[in-house]
Every structure is written in C-alpha cells, then in structure tokens.
Predict the structure.
Amino acid sequence: MRKRIWFILGGALIMVLASYATVSALTGGFAGRTTTGCGNGGCHSTGTPKPTATIVGPASLTTGESALYTVTVVGGSSTTGAGIDFGVTAGTLTAGTNTMLSGSEIVHSTKVTRTFSFTLTAPAIAQTIALNGAFVSSDNDGSAGDDTFGVTSMTITVTAPPTTTTTQPTTTTTTQPPTTTTTQPPTTTTTQPTTTTTVVIPARIDIVPDCLIKDRPMAVRVFLYGSASLDVSKVKRGSIRLDGASPTSIPRVRADLNGDGKPDMMLIFKAEDLDLEIGEQNLCLTGMTDGGKHFKGCDTICVKSVRPAHATTSSTSPASSTTLNTTSSSTISSSTTGSTQAMNATTESSTSGSRRQAHQQLSDMIRDAAHNIVRDRKRDRSCD
C-alpha cells in the first residue's frame, strides 16, 4: 500500500484519503520538516527532477516590524499541486493566503496551488534570523512515488530602529545698545486634539451552543453572516478572534446559511480557550478584511458551573434548550461526515465535474443544518 503525502491540507471539511486502510486521513500540512525535508520516513520521493522555491519578501526588518512573504514552488515532478512547511529561528509567523499555523510553523491549507503567503513579525531584539522551509511538488494522485521535494532558507537581518539626534543651532550673542521695548499681552493659541476614527463594520453572529459549562472542554461553533457591507470571502483568516481566542478550524466551504443571498461562514473554537465567567456573558467576534476594514459582531451566551438537571416535561424548558443545542451540533457533525464521504469519492474520481458537485452538496448540507440551528434555537438566559 502507498503512503499518503504528509503535506496536503484537507481543511476541516475536505479530508485526504489515506493509503493504509487502518490509518485515518490527514487534515493539514505536516510540520517539523523545515530543514530536514519531506523524504524522511518515505513520506515523499527523493528522486528528480527536484522542485525549487522562490521567497519574495524583505531581507531586513527593524525590531517588531511585520512584513509579508510569498513562497512559490517551481518545477519538480508535477505542476498540479504543492505543499510547504516554513519556520523561523526567532520572531512570529502568522498565516496568510493558502496557509495555516501548525504549532509555530506555517503549512499549506490547500493542495491545488503552488503559491503561498504568510506574515513574519521580527523579534524585539536585533539579530540575524533564518526563515527555513521545506516544499514538495505533488501530482495529487495519492502516490508518494511521483512527488519530489526540496528545502530552502532565507537569512533576514533584524536591526534596531534608527535613533533620531537633534542638533541645536549655535547662538551668537551681539551686545546692542539698550532699547525701549513695549510688552504686548500674550497671545493664547488653542491646539485642537487630532482624533483618528477607525470604522468598524457591524457583523451578525450566532454562537452554538449558547449555554456552556465552565472548565468543560467542548467545541464552540460561531456562524458569521455575510452582508452588503461584509463579504466573508474577503476576511483574513489569521485575523479572526473570539474574545482574543483564535479559531481551531475554519472550514473553507461557504454557504448562504440564512437565505439572504450572501455567503456566510462557520468557525470552530475551543471552549477552554475562552475566558468564561459564571452567568450571562457577551462574546464578540472581531477580524479584518483584505481591504483593511475591521468588523465586529457579538452574541450573548450563558455560562454555568454544572449542567442543569431540568425536567424535560416542556418543549420550551431550559433542558429542552440544552437538548436542542446538542442535537444541532450533532446535525452539523452528521452533515460534515456525510459531506466528507462525498468529497472522498470525488477525490477518487479525479474529475472536476464531480468535485464541483460534491462541493455544492457540502455547501447545501451545512446551510440546511445551520438553518435548523438558527430556527429552532431556544436560549436559557436564567443561568441559575
């Protein structure tokens, strides 16, 4: 049996088929190969022709400065797809186009492109750092034998910002005969403060489930709805935060979840990453679009210390609300599982028509599941 390519990212909804029947499919690029490459353990072929990679970005930064770097994989055994794994010896990496974070390293988030970008923020101390990366050229056929890889490195000089020195002019004093001076009353000058206003686009969100148990690990789904002023396809994935927490998964499939004709998106967070307090709590989702516009949307949830043991005699009781949240989450999970099977079948067929059909099927299933959640959701705001 053939071993699957470690570098291909499937995302939360597009999973890669594994060659071994007892091994689960990989869902993202594989980190830890920035200097050793992709051939260790038979992951990819060490044959020829080997691909090359170009890195476009500044070779020098000042301390704390951020800059965009673009990696393009060229040549190799195939021109169908590619994957990357990049790390830096000092500083911080932030995901950009076609990339995501895996630990502290940047890996690809899609397998059907050969161009990737990310942001590097220089460390606070002046030094020389190295941006190391491994890359693979892949034909996306599920066979490791036809794929080849390479490694690359870029040296970046980090310097302290320049120091501004102000030189005072030399004053020459000439003694003049005494003169009569008439003192005028002082003139009062009022300086108006300069105000910079940041325009924030209001966004609509729904948090599911809307009642959480403090200190209990669980998945929290946030539905971000598109509008005339907010195009979710332009949202920078690396900028999204829910009260400071980053999403653990951002499914790439977008669908019209509320039937307004605008594409919406779903994000998944970990409850343990949120700073939750007992009682009602207002959580806000913030982020930025490619055009530099900020957006913000908030929703109120209920946080309890233990799961309430309510009687289930009424369909509108808090217990029914908890059951509804569980059912709604299961609906999303079932939709995702069925859609993943459809996408796996599409990968085997290798026809663009089948891929589009499976992608549409996945969008429809997520949209229907989200409709059920938003339509049937009954909030328990007592938090007793």
Q: What stands out?
A: The domain at 200-376 is CATH 2.60.40.10 (Immunoglobulin-like). Residues 193 and 199 are 19 Å apart (CA to CA). DSSP finds two helices and 18 strands in the chain. The two ends are 56 Å apart (CA to CA).
